[in-house]
Amino acid sequence: MSAAFEQHKGIGMTSQRTRDRLVQRLQEEGIKNIEVLAAISRTPRHIFVDEALATRAYEDTALPIGFGQTISQPYIVARMTEVLLQEGPLQSVLEIGTGCGYQTAILSQLVGEVCSIEYIPELAKRTQALLRELQLDNIHTRIGDGWQGWAEKAPFDAIIVTAAPDEIPQNLLQQLADNGRMVVPVGGEGDVQQLMLVTRHGDEFEEEILDQVLFVPMVKGKK
Ligand code: SAH
């Protein structure tokens, strides 16, 4: 475990017991991957949200993180991570939408390395400082437009998109390794969003709808 997590163990509503109750709830809701559950159990989610919201950090809900954005609900973080890992270990993963960095921190404990892109500079900088403090040193972050992906670091074994584009970003498909997997919530503003799993087979892309979800929209950059 990151030694830095030890310093943030928490008490009362932020304690290990509270985290373990969340893990139990996720298991009841169908999350099965033991490694994913263990990462959630050891990661102090309360330090990724504003101090005033810390006591609510282990409820299974999304919470505001400033700049009009939200930290994803733990169930969704667990589910997306579980789906990415379903076919075996992953070396390199691209995340679109670093946000407060919680999903990034969970992933970094389960894969070789995580590259994460955030659109809002102030949020990206705040989160970069936190991830550095936590000594999660297999994370690379960048301020930029997720529609473009991160060509210099491609191909990726997996891509996770944590804001909702109105259509699957084509650049991201091209940055997937063969047999690579992408989970992405797709839907325009006001539409029902579908959580999709896209798997690359050579030049073919197999699409599967997993769930209905609700994410903040993915800001339109250049496509
Ligand atoms: N995984 C994050 C989710 C944050 S919400 C967490 O658990 O905290 C989605 C994030 O995607 C927001 O921080 C938002 O600013 C970012 N985002 C939206 N459009 C984007 C784009 N085009 N490129 C990169 N990031 C984007």
Condensed summary:
By secondary structure, the protein is of the alpha/beta class. The chain has helices at residues 3-6, 16-28, 34-42, 74-85, 102-108, 121-133, 170-174, and strands at 63-66, 69-71, 92-96, 113-118, 139-143, 156-161, 176-186, 193-201, 204-213.
Please give a structural write-up.
Helix 2 packs antiparallel against helix 3. With 223 residues, the chain is an alpha/beta fold. It has a 7-stranded mixed beta sheet with strand order 5-4-3-6-7-8-9. The model has no long low-confidence stretch (mean pLDDT 95). It contains 7 helices and 9 strands. It is globular and about 50 Å long. The chain binds S-adenosyl-L-homocysteine.
Query: Which structural category do the helix and sheet elements fall into?
Result: alpha/beta
Run of helices and strands: HHHEEHEHEHEEHEEE
Total of DSSP H or I helical runs spanning 4+ residues: 7
**Oligomeric organization of the protein chains:** single chain
Global shape? globular
Widest sheet, order of strands: 5-4-3-6-7-8-9
Distinct compounds present: S-adenosyl-L-homocysteine
Distance between the termini: 39 Å
Beta strands, count: 9
CATH fold-level assignment of the domain at 65-213: Rossmann fold
CATH homologous superfamily name of the domain at 65-213? Vaccinia Virus protein VP39
Largest sheet: 7 strands, mixed
Poorly predicted runs are none
**Radius of gyration over all CA atoms, rounded:** 16 Å
Strand content: 25-35%
Named at the architecture level, the CATH assignment of the domain at 65-213 is 3-Layer(aba) Sandwich
Bin the helical content: 25-40%
CATH C-level class of the domain at 65-213 is: Alpha Beta
Mean of residue pLDDT values: 95
